[in-house]
Fold this protein.
Amino acid sequence: MNEALERLRDGEWLHFFPQGKVSQEDVPIRRLKWGAASLIDRSSITPIVLPIVHHGFEKVMPEKYWFGRKPPFPLCNRRLSITVGEPIQFNLPKMREIAVSMSGNISVPSRGWPKSSCGLDEKAQIYLYMTISEQIRTAMESLRVFGKNILKKTSRIQPS
């Protein structure tokens, strides 16, 4: 995480999977891990998030392909789609202000987090991370559904 934060502070590109796992199922995107939100909050330059969702990689490297195991190499001739969404920009000063005012309304067990560099206490940080994560998750879920529908439409089209 420290190396990722350094890259963001230098204005570099950082690519990660906030789900915390690679999913082989076509199911709604679950709650995201808070690491992405933490990096966004802690970076001295507020990063722009570019949501990207892909479909079909579970057919390239299926977990249970050959005797319940992954294939020894990626499979060819599989249909893939990569859907890129609109950039997400965060107004962190405003979001932090809201987190401070709303954090009294949440009930969470203490994790022993120190105050953030911006002065947010633990509950405010949790509220902020939940808000950032949910905004990213919502964008990714919309892309997942959009990409799935596009893939269905294009797979019905047969070459002449």
